[in-house]
Task: structure prediction
Amino acid sequence: MYKVSLITIFFLGTISPVCAQRYVAENGFITFFSQAPVENIKADNNSVTSLFSADNGTIAFSVPIKEFQFEKKLMQEHFNDKYMESDRFPRSTFAGKVTGYSLSSPGLQSVRAKGKLTIRGTVKEIDVPGTLEVKNGSIIIKTKFKVVNKDYGIVIPQILWKNVSEEIEITINMTYKPQ
Result:
Protein backbone atom coordinates (compact mmCIF):
# COMPACT_ATOMS: atom_id res chain seq x y z
CA MET A 1 0.00 0.00 0.00
CA TYR A 2 2.85 2.38 0.86
CA LYS A 3 4.44 1.66 -2.52
CA VAL A 4 1.14 2.41 -4.25
CA SER A 5 0.85 5.81 -2.59
CA LEU A 6 4.47 6.69 -3.42
CA ILE A 7 3.94 5.61 -7.03
CA THR A 8 0.77 7.72 -7.20
CA ILE A 9 2.56 10.78 -5.82
CA PHE A 10 5.55 10.22 -8.15
CA PHE A 11 3.23 9.77 -11.14
CA LEU A 12 1.39 12.94 -10.23
CA GLY A 13 4.69 14.80 -10.19
CA THR A 14 5.77 13.52 -13.58
CA ILE A 15 2.58 14.18 -15.54
CA SER A 16 2.74 17.94 -15.10
CA PRO A 17 5.01 20.11 -17.21
CA VAL A 18 7.97 21.79 -15.56
CA CYS A 19 6.13 25.14 -15.41
CA ALA A 20 3.02 23.58 -13.85
CA GLN A 21 1.45 25.01 -10.75
CA ARG A 22 2.20 22.25 -8.28
CA TYR A 23 1.42 22.55 -4.59
CA VAL A 24 2.22 20.36 -1.61
CA ALA A 25 0.59 19.95 1.81
CA GLU A 26 2.91 18.20 4.25
CA ASN A 27 0.90 18.41 7.46
CA GLY A 28 -2.68 18.19 6.31
CA PHE A 29 -5.49 17.63 8.77
CA ILE A 30 -8.12 14.88 8.67
CA THR A 31 -10.71 14.15 11.34
CA PHE A 32 -13.16 11.32 11.47
CA PHE A 33 -16.24 11.28 13.63
CA SER A 34 -18.63 8.47 14.52
CA GLN A 35 -21.85 9.43 16.24
CA ALA A 36 -23.43 6.49 18.05
CA PRO A 37 -26.05 6.09 20.82
CA VAL A 38 -23.58 5.00 23.51
CA GLU A 39 -20.48 7.04 22.68
CA ASN A 40 -19.17 9.41 20.02
CA ILE A 41 -15.76 8.60 18.60
CA LYS A 42 -13.43 11.23 17.15
CA ALA A 43 -9.84 11.02 15.96
CA ASP A 44 -7.48 13.56 14.39
CA ASN A 45 -4.54 13.08 12.05
CA ASN A 46 -2.08 15.93 11.33
CA SER A 47 0.35 13.79 9.31
CA VAL A 48 -1.41 13.72 5.95
CA THR A 49 0.61 14.50 2.83
CA SER A 50 -0.91 15.63 -0.44
CA LEU A 51 0.03 16.99 -3.84
CA PHE A 52 -2.21 19.21 -5.93
CA SER A 53 -1.52 20.18 -9.53
CA ALA A 54 -3.49 23.40 -9.95
CA ASP A 55 -3.17 23.55 -13.73
CA ASN A 56 -5.19 20.35 -14.27
CA GLY A 57 -6.77 19.65 -10.85
CA THR A 58 -4.95 16.37 -10.21
CA ILE A 59 -4.75 15.59 -6.50
CA ALA A 60 -3.34 12.76 -4.37
CA PHE A 61 -3.43 12.08 -0.62
CA SER A 62 -1.54 9.67 1.59
CA VAL A 63 -2.92 9.11 5.10
CA PRO A 64 -0.87 7.16 7.68
CA ILE A 65 -3.48 5.22 9.66
CA LYS A 66 -1.49 4.89 12.88
CA GLU A 67 -1.24 8.68 13.14
CA PHE A 68 -4.92 9.05 14.06
CA GLN A 69 -5.03 10.27 17.67
CA PHE A 70 -7.95 9.41 19.95
CA GLU A 71 -8.98 10.79 23.32
CA LYS A 72 -8.85 7.26 24.78
CA LYS A 73 -5.86 5.00 24.26
CA LEU A 74 -8.04 1.86 24.17
CA MET A 75 -10.08 3.30 21.27
CA GLN A 76 -6.86 3.92 19.37
CA GLU A 77 -5.69 0.34 19.96
CA HIS A 78 -9.02 -1.15 18.80
CA PHE A 79 -9.08 1.15 15.77
CA ASN A 80 -5.59 0.08 14.66
CA ASP A 81 -5.76 -3.61 15.59
CA LYS A 82 -9.36 -4.70 15.06
CA TYR A 83 -10.97 -2.32 12.59
CA MET A 84 -8.29 -0.84 10.33
CA GLU A 85 -5.62 -3.58 10.67
CA SER A 86 -3.07 -0.80 10.30
CA ASP A 87 -0.06 -3.15 10.37
CA ARG A 88 -1.47 -4.84 7.26
CA PHE A 89 -2.92 -1.65 5.71
CA PRO A 90 -0.70 1.19 6.97
CA ARG A 91 -2.07 3.91 4.65
CA SER A 92 -5.22 5.10 3.01
CA THR A 93 -4.94 7.00 -0.25
CA PHE A 94 -6.95 9.13 -2.60
CA ALA A 95 -6.05 9.91 -6.21
CA GLY A 96 -8.33 11.97 -8.38
CA LYS A 97 -9.20 15.35 -9.77
CA VAL A 98 -10.65 18.58 -8.37
CA THR A 99 -13.00 20.48 -10.71
CA GLY A 100 -14.91 23.76 -10.63
CA TYR A 101 -12.22 26.25 -9.59
CA SER A 102 -10.31 29.18 -11.01
CA LEU A 103 -7.02 30.30 -9.47
CA SER A 104 -7.70 33.83 -10.66
CA SER A 105 -11.03 34.03 -8.80
CA PRO A 106 -10.82 35.51 -5.30
CA GLY A 107 -12.70 34.08 -2.34
CA LEU A 108 -14.19 30.74 -1.50
CA GLN A 109 -15.16 28.53 -4.44
CA SER A 110 -17.34 25.42 -4.48
CA VAL A 111 -15.51 22.48 -6.04
CA ARG A 112 -15.87 18.72 -6.48
CA ALA A 113 -13.26 16.01 -6.06
CA LYS A 114 -13.74 12.76 -7.92
CA GLY A 115 -11.38 9.82 -7.73
CA LYS A 116 -10.40 6.57 -6.08
CA LEU A 117 -10.39 6.30 -2.29
CA THR A 118 -8.49 3.32 -0.88
CA ILE A 119 -9.15 2.16 2.68
CA ARG A 120 -7.96 -1.21 4.00
CA GLY A 121 -6.98 -2.26 0.46
CA THR A 122 -10.49 -1.66 -0.91
CA VAL A 123 -10.76 0.89 -3.70
CA LYS A 124 -14.00 2.82 -4.28
CA GLU A 125 -14.80 5.65 -6.66
CA ILE A 126 -16.04 8.72 -4.76
CA ASP A 127 -17.34 12.13 -5.76
CA VAL A 128 -17.44 14.69 -2.95
CA PRO A 129 -18.18 18.41 -2.66
CA GLY A 130 -15.72 20.81 -1.10
CA THR A 131 -14.30 24.30 -1.15
CA LEU A 132 -11.10 25.80 -2.53
CA GLU A 133 -9.68 29.17 -1.57
CA VAL A 134 -6.59 30.92 -2.89
CA LYS A 135 -5.10 32.92 -0.02
CA ASN A 136 -1.68 34.56 0.38
CA GLY A 137 -0.07 32.36 -2.28
CA SER A 138 -1.46 29.16 -0.75
CA ILE A 139 -4.43 27.01 -1.73
CA ILE A 140 -6.80 25.80 0.99
CA ILE A 141 -9.01 22.83 0.19
CA LYS A 142 -11.70 21.61 2.59
CA THR A 143 -14.32 18.90 2.40
CA LYS A 144 -16.65 16.88 4.59
CA PHE A 145 -18.18 13.57 3.49
CA LYS A 146 -19.25 10.19 4.82
CA VAL A 147 -17.95 6.70 4.23
CA VAL A 148 -19.81 3.50 5.05
CA ASN A 149 -17.71 1.02 7.06
CA LYS A 150 -18.91 -2.11 5.26
CA ASP A 151 -18.01 -0.58 1.85
CA TYR A 152 -14.36 -0.85 2.90
CA GLY A 153 -14.56 -4.20 4.69
CA ILE A 154 -14.69 -2.71 8.18
CA VAL A 155 -16.85 -5.04 10.26
CA ILE A 156 -18.34 -3.83 13.54
CA PRO A 157 -19.08 -6.73 15.90
CA GLN A 158 -22.79 -7.08 16.71
CA ILE A 159 -22.09 -6.48 20.40
CA LEU A 160 -20.67 -3.02 19.57
CA TRP A 161 -23.30 -1.80 17.09
CA LYS A 162 -24.40 0.92 19.55
CA ASN A 163 -20.81 2.08 20.03
CA VAL A 164 -19.74 2.63 16.42
CA SER A 165 -21.82 4.18 13.66
CA GLU A 166 -22.07 2.46 10.27
CA GLU A 167 -21.25 5.79 8.61
CA ILE A 168 -18.14 7.73 9.51
CA GLU A 169 -17.91 11.47 8.82
CA ILE A 170 -14.57 12.53 7.34
CA THR A 171 -13.42 16.16 7.48
CA ILE A 172 -10.37 17.26 5.49
CA ASN A 173 -8.55 20.59 5.74
CA MET A 174 -5.44 20.97 3.60
CA THR A 175 -3.24 24.03 3.08
CA TYR A 176 -1.04 23.72 0.01
CA LYS A 177 2.14 25.71 -0.55
CA PRO A 178 3.83 26.12 -3.93
CA GLN A 179 6.29 23.30 -4.58
Q: What stands out?
A: The helical segments are 2-15, 73-83. The longest strand covers residues 122-135.
